[in-house]
Amino acid sequence: MSPSHHSDYQTRDYRPGDETAITELFSIVFGRCLPETHWRWKYTGSGLTSPLARLAFDRDGRLVGHAGAIALRGWREGRPLPFFQICDVMVHPAARGQLGQRNLFTRLARELLEEIAQRWPEAFAYGFPGQRPFRLGAYAGVYEAVEQTVCWSRPVGKRWLPLPGTRALDWNDDWLDAFWTEQASALPLALVRDRAYLNWRYACHPHRCYQLLGLQLARRRFGWAVVQPVENRLRVVDMLVARRWLKLALRALDRVAGASGMQTVEIWLPSGWRETVDGTLAPTEVVTTNMVWRLPLDTATVRKTLYYTMGDLDIF
What we know:
By secondary structure, this protein is an alpha+beta fold. It has helices at about 20-30, 35-45, 105-120, 130-140, 175-185, 195-205, 245-260, 300-305, and strands at about 5, 10-15, 50-55, 65-75, 80-90, 125, 145-155, 165-170, 190, 210-215, 220-230, 235-240, 265-270, 280-290.
């Protein structure tokens, strides 16, 4: 998209070298560091496109706004579909407060989604903002709520049945691709969770460590889970199983947590999945969001069909 001038700000697409200013703005807006190594992994590691972002500069050439998109491989009803996770939509405190098209949050989000719609007309774009940024995006006509994200959890019990079990998996195991192919037909709208995705998203993460577990019953592998211990909890960051195997999968992970002295297993799952198992459901501050500006997928369809986990977010 070509540069745009409006009021006191100029907007344009990302250019190589902008990452230094982007990570500095991130620290100002969110109050935590985003190392450039993390930024490169996040925006270029999937290898699908050059970094996608729309940037705003003030009259002195300082970066004051940013909206980014992570390009991902998606799947809808039996065929590939471009997915984009919209993230790091941020405006410097000194550049906030305008209304309408003068509002940089609105302007950057709309311009980014317009570019995606022009280049990938069938694309699906989604995100996971907190309550305040969601309200800004909804007011701008850019965001629509799929649902408030809910954390399912259950205390580790004394369920020491011999089955099911788990076994550590290698991130390059050929079975991961075969299993994705087997399961894809049951997922109407989801990320492609194959070996390449797992390697980029988890094995190659620059700052976090994850464990990949195969879920087994009587030597038959029926799914996998990406887990991460956090204090006294076993966080299930990602998982791929048939819905009918979900209870057995969580029972196997319960055993993993108990054997490591943890007290709770927790996972994020969409509506229709989490209600099928016993446990506590606690709303989070995160809103699962459909990006509707210029894009074709209606929110009612997304609400019925999207499969997501913590791993769909960029914060875990």
